[in-house]
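dumping the sequnces here before i forget
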Amino acid sequence: MQSVSSMSSLDHFWLVIFCAIVAFIPRFFPLLFFTKRKIPEWFNEWMRFVPVSLFTALVVKSVFIDSKYQIMTSGNLGMIISAIIVGFIAFRTRSMTLSVVIGLVSVMIFVLVLHI
Amino acid sequence: MKKNEPNWLMVLRTVMPLGLSYIPIGLACGVLLHAAGFNHLLTALISVLVFSGGAQFLIASMLTINAPMTTIILMMFFLELRYALLGSSLSRYLKGQKLPFIFFFAFSMNDENYAVNYLKFATDKHWKPSQAILVEHYSLLFWTVSNIVGSLIGSALTINLSVVDFALTALFIYMAIMQTKSRLTILVCALSGVLTIFFLVLMKSTLGLVVATLLASLTGYFIERHLITHKPESHLLYKVHDPTGQSAMEEDSDK
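..and the predicted 3d for all of it:
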């Protein structure tokens, strides 16, 4: 096995375990806390806005922000156009499959073929 | 919806678009982890235990630049903090579940299967926690198998990451559109987008996602509360037109 990293497989094993622990803590404890207690109505009303805000944030991050946390100024036009197409398809058809498939096809055309 | 369809098949049909988009992303992730020095077994292990595309891509890229273990774990912690929000917003649908259920549900929850489950819980009153955890396990299966295959193929496959990653972006766009019920939601989306750019650039970490989500959702909540008490006829509370008339039906059956 060719390895570019200086870590051994045992190091990798412990890395996976520690990452699993830090990934588990924020997934588990809030869920446990709020399923075991009576949730105030205002909390539920607030939480209704969480998914849509989070999904928008994830989309904006992948379309406009690069891996160094800077605003992408070039090379993402294909993704922007594809995102608009997906939004339109999702709005008109309400089909998850169509949205994902058409999104992938359009981003392939724009990025791999047209290079924008 | 078809009658007499067995539960496992119905859930599998629900999770299928997600499962299919996991295949190219999982393959890419397996390839990257292999290149970073992970063996096949460890790739399988991380796919099951961490089960997050973003996190696994991050680990792979940090390993290739020889980042120290503590740095990777710390970055993971900030990356995964947003799951606290996911869990909180799903909690009202999981009330009364036993501790082992909550444990295993939290264990395999991630952005994508959360999105599928939240949508089902919000629009289908017959959607049960047992089906939600099945969604998680199906998506986990798709993810892990794709990762292992990617790891086995290794460098034989060249993958354009930004293209593959767009499958998930498309999924989230779809989810955001499906969640847009009133004009106020559109405003919250726009605000969330602007705040995301601002805080990601400012904080240089995915913690910016958490801050932007918190602020945008809180703003939405306060505007809605203000409008309902002071201006109930406000245009912002109007429902968004649905060309298929589908979500209107779901709303009715919800009552």
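The longest helix of chain B spans residues 7-35.
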